[in-house]
Design a protein that fits this description.
seven-stranded mixed β-sheet, about 30% helix, alpha/beta
């Protein structure tokens, strides 16, 4: 999945910084885990991980993959290949009424809806799979691991048939070639049974108090909030029939304080003050809402004397049209041992 601020090219930078500049770190709290790529990588390197994100679809991706030690058996359900069954499922094989098809009725050009997020066939497929998974869970045919495993598979499959440029803040006015693909569920890669990973769907101020050797925080860098960019994935994940509005059918949400010039300083203070970890490691960059000097000052206020360090790495920006710093974009890691 293409994810804003994804750290796929910075994983070695993050892990090597931890390994070379900390002592006795065995557990990491990835408090803004997003797609889970950092949590997964650190787990593969032998760390126990606490993975958290306030977005429910992100929680599902992590809980249904790295949050499971082995592929579920689906013994109670009694279907030999569950993903194959769902991939071949047709609307006529189910008894769900058409008015329950929330994605079809609101994000595909059918009936009175004009939004072009999904081709009608794929929209129906998303709905019947999501409804079937929920029905199985309600009837006691799935345990938690099985439920989240199937939901993670569905969420991961949706971007491959979505009529977008990368995020869901807008849809294309013509059908992209990918939208003609058939929605296809694939098995998520599960976690390592030799490492502990716990997944949460909590506000950062609440979860930070959980003990860990190091808190790794990758908050939003600018005023571009994550929620509107992934609102349809959030709705598929929750499938709660929200009241939506606007051209894109946006569901209600609360803006992250890290995306507000007025609130970002207090957000960082809340993050660090609530932390129950020995070390704090923050991912940011030199073109973010807070300047390097401002965030360094915040960190120094909470750092044990002589422990604060700033690491930087040149990095290619997400979009060239974004106004750039004359010295170039640099990804940053703020590391210190907390007082």
């Amino acid at each position: 999945m293409r994810y804003i601020g994804g750290k796929s090219k910075l994983l070695d930078f993050i892990e090597s910084t931890i390994a070379a500049n900390t002592r006795g770190v065995r557990s990491v709290m990835d408090i803004f885990s997003g797609s889970g790529i950092v949590s997964s990588f650190l787990q593969s390197k032998g760390y126990d991980v606490i993975s958290n994100d306030i977005l429910y679809f992100s929680y599902i991706i992590n809980r249904g993959s790295i949050g499971i030690a082995e592929v579920p058996s689906f013994k109670t359900l009694g279907i030999p290949d569950v993903l194959e069954y769902l991939n071949n499922l047709r609307a006529e094989d189910t008894t769900f009424p058409a008015e329950k098809f929330f994605i079809t009725n609101n994000y595909s050009p059918t009936g009175d809806c004009k939004r072009m997020y999904f081709q009608p066939d794929n929209a129906v497929k998303i709905d019947i799979i999501r409804l079937t998974i929920e029905d199985w869970k309600t009837r006691g045919l799935l345990n938690d691991d099985e439920y989240f495993y199937l939901l993670a598979s569905l969420i991961n499959a949706v971007p491959f048939v979505s009529n977008i440029t990368g995020v869901y803040a807008a849809y294309l006015k013509f059908w992209d070639v990918r939208t003609f693909n058939k929605l296809h569920l694939e098995a998520p890669a599960v976690g390592n049974p030799n490492q502990t990973i716990r997944c949460f769907n909590s506000d950062f101020r609440e979860i930070a108090a959980h003990p860990a050797d190091i808190l790794y925080a990758d908050p939003p860098y600018n005023e571009r909030d994550y929620f509107p960019n992934y609102h349809i994935l959030e709705t598929i994940a929750r499938y709660d029939y929200p009241a939506i509005k606007g051209v894109t059918g946006l569901r209600p949400y609360t803006k992250s304080p890290f995306c507000s010039k007025k609130n970002v300083v207090q957000a960082f203070r809340d993050l660090i003050e609530n932390s129950n970890s020995r070390y704090v490691l923050i991912s940011y960059n030199n073109e973010a809402l807070l300047s390097t000097e401002a965030l360094s000052e915040i960190c120094l206020n909470y750092a044990r004397e002589g422990t604060f360090r700033l690491f930087e790495k040149d990095y290619r920006r997400y979009k060239n049209k974004i106004p750039n710093n004359k010295e170039g974009l640099r990804e940053q890691l703020y590391l210190f041992e907390k007082n």
